[in-house]
Design brief:
Layout lengths: L5 H19 L6 E5 L6 H17 L2 E5 L4 H9 L5 E5 H8 L14 E17 L14 E3 L6 H12 L5 E3 L3 H9 L5 E5 L5 H9 L2 E4 L3 H10 L4 E5 L11 E13 L4 H12 L2 H7 L21 H9 L11
Parallel strand pairs: 1-2, 1-3, 5-6, 5-7
Antiparallel strand pairs: 3-10, 4-7, 4-8, 4-10, 9-10
Helix pairs in contact: 2-9, 9-11
Length: 324
């Protein structure tokens, strides 16, 4: 009688288990694209790090792509051109309800939430020599507001309207805009990104600058008009020469996917991100907020079934109206 060793039994077990693993990846794409934003912004850093992490751990060739930001990302996921997009919830809500500036009238109902990322606060940088140190000082000045279609480009003009400030607005990515500030081509750069914003940190390290947000009165006026925003205090010490915290407003960011992403892939991506916060914080410090406890920061966008399965396995109940 042939002797069956423990090693042989182990090999047989592995062989029998192999089809289950393969079955779990049925329908997975060989590659996927993550829509981010301009170089020098937090989305670009976060999205590239996330793509590398997915490629390394899940065996899918993931890559990040420079885009105009959340408004464009929502549409690229809706159309299926990108499999994952990074979005702030203000532009995402407008896309969901058919009020996107990029695709007006098109309800982006194929979007599904994957996981919470972090909050995006709003800040302004100008050379100290300009004398600009308050939003009111931007009246009549040349002000870049990030790339067209991004969160900053969407909201800063609205802030200016609420606060009755009329600058000359232009559009540029984070690195380009800070270069334009340094070269005197524009007077200020009003942006929105997870802090610290790398482009702000670089210009502050190389030049005497003013970095500011809103006064308490300005903050209240903006919040009264835009309930999707939240109060936020930017910690002191993030930028060279700015030891004190600053009051501003913020929007939550989420990673979203198309509803047709395989459930098992969405599940594994959410699990990877939610269970490896130390690795995510190595990508960008804002990922300290990329945790399951912030799932409730989404109040309208249905979660992908794979995300629902993961969170409910962890004891986090997703409301029925948010199950996609």
């Amino acid at each position: 009688m042939r002797k069956i060793t423990l090693a042989a039994l182990g090999a047989a077990a592995l062989f029998l288990a192999a089809p289950a693993v393969a079955q779990d990846k049925t329908g997975w794409p060989q590659s996927l694209t993550i829509g981010t934003a301009s170089q020098g912004g937090t989305y670009f850093i976060y999205g590239n790090g996330l793509a590398n992490f997915i490629s390394e751990k899940l065996g899918v060739n993931a890559s990040a792509e420079v885009t105009g930001g959340p408004v464009q990302n929502a549409t690229l996921v809706q159309t299926g051109d990108h499999q994952i997009g990074l979005v702030t919830m203000g532009p995402a809500y407008e896309a969901w309800t058919g009020k996107s500036e990029l695709a007006p009238g098109v309800e982006h109902t194929d979007l599904r939430a994957l996981f919470p990322m972090y909050q995006t606060p709003f800040q302004v940088v100008a050379l100290k020599s300009s004398g600009i140190k308050d939003v009111k000082d931007l009246a009549g000045k040349r002000v870049a507001v990030g790339p067209a279609g991004g969160t900053a480009a969407t909201y800063w003009p609205r802030f200016f309207e609420v606060l009755e400030v009329k600058p000359v607005v232009s559009y540029a990515g984070a690195n380009d805009a800070t270069s334009q500030v340094k070269d005197g081509l524009i007077d200020a750069f009003a942006f929105a990104a997870g802090v610290p914003i790398s482009a702000f940190a670089q210009i502050a390290a190389e030049n005497p600058v003013n970095i500011f947000s809103f006064t308490k009165e300005q903050q209240k006026a903006v919040l009264d008009k835009m309930p999707e925003l939240a109060e936020f205090q930017i910690p002191g010490g993030l930028y060279q020469g700015f030891p004190d915290p600053q009051d501003t407003v913020s929007l939550w960011n989420f990673a979203v996917a198309h509803k047709d992403m395989p459930e098992s892939l969405a599940y594994e991506i959410v699990k990877l991100v939610m269970e490896n916060n130390d690795r995510m914080k190595q990508i960008h410090s804002t990922a300290s907020e990329t945790v399951p406890g912030h799932v409730d920061r989404n109040s309208f966008l249905p979660y992908h079934p794979g995300a629902v399965r993961y969170f409910e396995e962890k004891g986090i109940q997703i409301p029925d109206n948010l199950k996609g």
